[in-house]
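Hi Y.,

Following your request, here is the sequence exactly as I used it, all 237 residues.
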Amino acid sequence: MSQHALATATRPGRPRVIPRLAGARAPRDEILHAAADLFVNRGFAATSTRDIAEKVGIRQASLYYHFAGKPGILAELLELSVRPSLEKVEKIERDCPADVPEAALYLLALIDAGTLATVPHNIGRLYRMPDVRSSEVFGEFEPALQELTAAYGRLGADIVSGPVAATVSVDQLGGLLVQAVEVVIRIRSRRVEVTPAQARAIAATCLRICGVPEARIARATGTADDLLLRFAEERPA
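Below is the corresponding structure, written out as tokens. Let me know if you'd prefer a different format.
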């Protein structure tokens, strides 16, 4: 987590300007959702903490109870766009059967596409925005993005065909695969929902970029489905 994130204090916050409805998100999550909406649609630099507090319906001082300021909020939102995928890389590499190596890349792409399809307010757009990319927070976040790109390149290099390997380096391959998955961001920018079928098609496209034959892609999808089920069963209650 970024150094900008502030741990929750033990003292009570100030009263809300607008009472929170029963069943509503926790205040911290409400702040993140409101900030995501404003950052994506208005811009990071153009959004103030007062804007965020007003959108949530709390006093500005209450926002500072949960976050030190805008940088901490941005850092957490950026993490949400990559961390779920990164946390699965080691498990994918460990559990993927050696005789179906294509399943590892397919599964990473599928999980990553699912993450980008479900994060609030299409926050994957944030790290393409100039005011975000020029921020100190992005500099702290960029290694995580590079780590994810490297994982794509590593898994792609394990299955790439000879002609593709002769054309692009491992680093370039990782970048190409990331770009293929990030089409989810562009789809959501048109206010269109990304369906599970589309996420699977995107994951299969990653294998095609590597030159994987269709028969191997079909086998990889079945293996990946089995691994996803196992992941779900192993999730703590």
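The radius of gyration is 20 Å.

Thanks again,
Q.
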